[in-house]
Fold:
Amino acid sequence: MKIVKVKLGKRSYPIYIGVDLSALGPVLTRHCPNTHKTIIVTNELLSELYGEILEKSLKTVGYQVRTILVPDGEKYKTLEQAEKLYQSLLKEKIERFSPIIALGGGVIGDLTGFVSATFLRGLPLVQVPTTLVAQVDSSIGGKVGIDLPEGKNLVGAFYQPTFVWIDLKVLETLALEEMRNGFAEVIKYGIIQEAKFFNYLEMWVSDVGHLSLKFLEEIVYRSCKIKSEIVQKDECERTGLRRILNFGHTLGHVLEALTKYRIYKHGEAVSIGMVGATKIAEKMKLIKKEEAERIVNLLKKVELPTNWPKKYKLEKVYPYLEHDKKVKNGKINFVLPVKIGQVIVRNDVPKKILNKVLK
Ligand SMILES: NC(=O)c1ccc[n+]([C@@H]2O[C@H](COP(=O)([O-])OP(=O)(O)OC[C@H]3O[C@@H](n4cnc5c(N)ncnc54)[C@H](O)[C@@H]3O)[C@@H](O)[C@H]2O)c1
Ligand SMILES: [Zn+2]
Structure:
């Protein structure tokens, strides 16, 4: 087992990595005394796979456990589902100290986190992430929220969990494309913050579907450490440091929006976006050609897409870029790599260069 401590003063919490779902009970009693009730929020698939193990672990230490199911998919990360969850919590007579356990990927984590942040002005939240994306990204850092018909993650809060419990064995049942999705964010961490981690991935990453638990533990641990160090310095996205986590996301979000979220998974769009940002940096002479090539090659190695689709030229892209949340005073912010392990934020990318990159 490895532990990453997220240090945020009174809101500090541990991320336990490489633990068993069946061992959660005793740890929960330590973190959340003064209650004998707890709720698991999950979906049908995950409940069938892992619900029983988790419930048993909680009941053994004396908890009264209820499981609430939400339907599977991003389209259910809504206010309507949040309201249904509030009603269920009322029915269960949940009290201020009762922890809510989010068992699932980022969708369940974000939705359950939002409900925990707001119900009775805040219930303890335990994140039990079951996708690689959730283990290395969404369960850490305290961003919780829901989508509106007008856009993703438009309503939310910064609400840190009481702790995060990462059982890596659950990744065995995760679809291959979901694993790849997570790898886009893992590789991102190496590029934005730690060359040594990037080198490690370059050296050891192979067939994403057959990775050893030891290797997974190492990459999840190092990813959690990098993300939590960034979050510690800029918890609520005020100083701008947290912005570097958006590397690859400026163009990535545009691509997702242009294709109406139907063609690319988030990680795939981010992969193409990271290559786009790297090419911009290369054309602006910020990064050496060889380093840029290493970025593209590592993404290819895990079979993530790297080519910007030809049909989306600058004229189509520009309106989306201007609407992006990353625009400030009419200038478009890009996170650009200057070398592996270091990025900068620039708002002066010439249109001419963008035009060349989006070809
Ligand atoms: N809060 C944040 O900081 C943050 C960061 C990144 C992403 N997100 C959000 O996370 C969401 C995406 O999360 P995701 O990529 O985990 O997708 P997801 O939650 O939709 O999960 C993907 C699919 O995998 C299934 N699944 C989950 N765990 C499984 C397992 N162990 N075995 C088999 N199947 C499993 C799910 O049921 C689902 O069908 C988006 O809504 C995004 O906005 C939030
Ligand atoms: Zn992302």
The chain is about 45% helix and 20% strand. The pocket of nicotinamide-adenine-dinucleotide (ligand 1) is lined by residues 43, 45-46, 72, 74, 77, 104-108, 110, 130-131, 133-134, 137-138, 141, 143, 152-153, 170, 173-174, 178, 181 (CB under 6 Å). The first helix runs from residue 24 to 31. The first strand starts at residue 2 and ends at 6.
